[in-house]
Design goal:
Layout lengths: L1 H21 L9 H27 L2 H8 L1 H9 L15 H30 L5 H4 L2 H32 L3 E3 L3 E3 L5 H18 L2 H10 L5 H22 L4 H25 L2 H36 L11
Antiparallel strand pairs: 1-2
Helix pairs in contact: 2-5, 3-5, 4-7, 5-7, 5-8, 7-8, 7-11, 9-11, 10-11
Length: 318
């Protein structure tokens, strides 16, 4: 079994090396202006998809606004805040600006598959033939994870966040009453920030899988970085979420779990030749460090021998 596994790994390494020697499929040199023209084309297609998505969302903006206020109004009622659950705008065009932002975000969600495809299409010319077959899984997985992140935020993060904020309202020792007055544009900006933040966090597996296909990272490197990533996840969660432990855990724990999911995906999709080259470099570093330590120990031992006092022998004088 072990022999078969080693032979399989050797075959995979040889295929990776053959691919690197042959270069990407349809490998043709592109000038800076060619790359710029390709980027412009992909950006134009993405903008067209975004505009169509925004137009679709604009005609449903009232329904969308009512939907994204569900967690807020539920928390409002749960904490028995006086008055109705209302949103306000402070300038004549404030409601239009808020609706425009809402339509823009909704349009991005609708256009996400097209945008992710254009991103893949831009980098595809630099990929090998066997890597291009991941285009459909990449688009589907990217869209699914982004939407899943937003859905998770909507169902769990936002109710906890609004519950914490609204719990501070009400009568303060009978002296004064704290009443929330929520502006429409500020509410939408806040919700969008949370939804996009969770959507981006849920894209972590796609990011690291892509980097592993490019030979940039491997699963051993990611396991070594895990403690730093977890610290950064809790730090960022503390910045983006309200200062209560529940909201921070709701963001930090999924981010950490997705990182370890990424380790598994990288283990599956990583280039064996890149992993072998990294292991060889690490072994060379370890050997060099060990040799340096041995040389230093031998030098110190030699110095101790030189500085050691000679024992005096007492003999009887005849």
């Amino acid at each position: 079994m072990t022999k078969k596994a080693s032979e399989k790994e050797k075959e995979e390494e040889e295929r990776d090396l053959d691919d690197e020697e042959q270069g990407p499929e349809d490998d043709k040199p592109m000038s800076f202006w060619d790359h710029l023209g390709e980027l412009r084309t992909r950006v134009v297609y993405s903008l067209i998809a975004l505009i169509i998505g925004c137009a679709i969302t604009w005609f449903s903006k009232e329904k969308l606004l009512a939907k994204i206020t569900d967690p807020f109004c539920a928390s409002w009622k749960a904490h028995a805040v006086p008055g109705a659950c209302n949103l306000h705008f402070s300038t004549p065009g404030g409601d239009f600006a808020a609706y425009f932002t809402l339509a823009l975000i909704g349009g991005f969600a609708i256009a996400a598959p097209v945008i992710f495809y254009q991103l893949w299409a831009f980098v595809a010319p630099g990929l090998y033939a066997k890597e291009k077959k991941y285009v459909i899984p990449f688009v589907v997985a990217s869209t699914f994870l982004f939407v899943s992140g937003g859905f998770f935020a909507f169902k769990f993060a936002l109710p906890l966040t609004f519950g914490y904020f609204l719990s501070m309202s009400g009568s303060v020792e009978g002296a004064v009453t704290v009443t929330p007055t929520i502006m429409m544009e500020e509410y939408i900006d806040f919700v969008v920030k949370i939804l996009l933040g969770f959507g981006a966090i849920f894209e972590i597996p796609i990011l690291f899988t892509f980097l592993s296909l490019a030979g940039v990272v491997n699963h051993k490197q990611m396991l070594r970085w895990a403690r730093y990533y977890i610290f950064a996840a809790f730090l960022i969660a503390g910045i983006l979420t309200p200062p209560d432990w529940a909201s921070q855990l709701v963001m930090a724990i999924p981010a950490s779990g997705l990182y370890f999911l990424s380790v598994g995906l990288v283990f599956i999709f990583q280039k064996k030749s890149a992993l072998k080259a990294w292991e060889d470099r690490e072994q060379e570093k370890a050997d060099a460090k060990k040799k340096e330590e041995d040389d230093k120990a031998a030098e110190e031992k030699k110095k101790r021998k030189k500085t050691k006092p000679k024992s005096k022998t007492k003999g009887a004088v005849a």
